[in-house]
C-alpha cells in the first residue's frame, strides 16, 4: 500500500500546484474560498507525505493491509464505477439527497465498512449537505419525486 501512497502523494502535489495556478487567475475576493480549500488539501497531503515518506511502518501492519485488499481491488473498482454511473442517472429521477444517502450506504457496504458507520454516514452527510447548500448557501439541487 505504501507504493500507492507515494504515487498518490506526488500526484496530489501536482494537482494542487495546477489548482493554485487556476486560483491565481481569479479576482482576489473570489479566490478566498478556493485558497482555503487549497490550504486544507495541502495540509492533508503533507500529513500523507509525512506518513508515507518519513514514518516507517511496522511490517505486520503493512502485510495486514496488503492481505485485506488482495484480490478485491479490480472488482470493487468496477462495481464502484457502475454504482457511480447509476447514482448520476438517479439524481434527477429520485432526488439528490435520497440518491446520495443510498449511494453512500451501498458504496460503504461494498467497500466493507461496518453497517453501523454506513448508516450513520449515509444519513448525516446528506443532512449536512442540505444544511450547507440549500439552507445556508441557497444553491438549487436536483429534485426528484422524493426530495
From TrEMBL:
Listed A to Z, the keywords are: Membrane, Transmembrane, Transmembrane helix
Q: Which InterPro entries match?
A: DUF1468
Protein name per Swiss-Prot or TrEMBL: DUF1468 domain-containing protein
Membrane-spanning regions, if any? Answer: 6-23, 35-55, 75-105, 117-137
**Superkingdom classification of source:** Bacteria
Organism whose genome encodes this protein: Fusobacterium nucleatum subsp. polymorphum
**Annotated DUF1468 domain residues:** 13-142
Q: What is the lineage of its organism?
A: Bacteria, Fusobacteriati, Fusobacteriota, Fusobacteriia, Fusobacteriales
Amino acid at each position: 500500500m505504501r507504493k500507492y501512497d507515494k504515487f498518490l502523494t506526488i500526484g496530489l502535489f501536482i494537482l494542487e500546484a495546477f489548482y493554485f495556478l487556476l486560483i491565481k487567475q481569479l479576482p482576489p475576493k473570489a479566490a478566498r474560498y478556493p485558497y482555503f480549500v487549497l490550504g486544507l488539501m495541502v495540509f492533508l497531503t503533507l500529513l500523507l507525505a509525512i506518513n508515507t515518506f518519513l514514518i516507517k511502518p511496522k511490517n505486520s501492519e503493512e502485510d495486514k493491509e496488503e492481505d485485506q485488499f488482495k484480490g478485491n481491488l479490480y472488482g470493487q473498482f468496477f462495481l464502484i464505477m457502475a454504482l457511480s454511473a447509476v447514482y448520476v442517472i438517479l439524481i434527477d429521477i429520485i432526488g439528490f439527497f435520497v440518491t446520495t444517502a443510498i449511494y453512500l450506504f451501498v458504496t460503504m457496504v461494498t467497500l466493507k465498512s461496518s453497517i453501523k458507520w454506513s448508516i450513520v454516514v449515509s444519513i448525516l452527510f446528506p443532512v449536512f449537505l442540505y444544511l450547507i447548500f440549500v439552507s445556508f448557501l441557497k444553491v438549487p439541487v436536483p429534485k426528484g419525486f422524493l426530495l
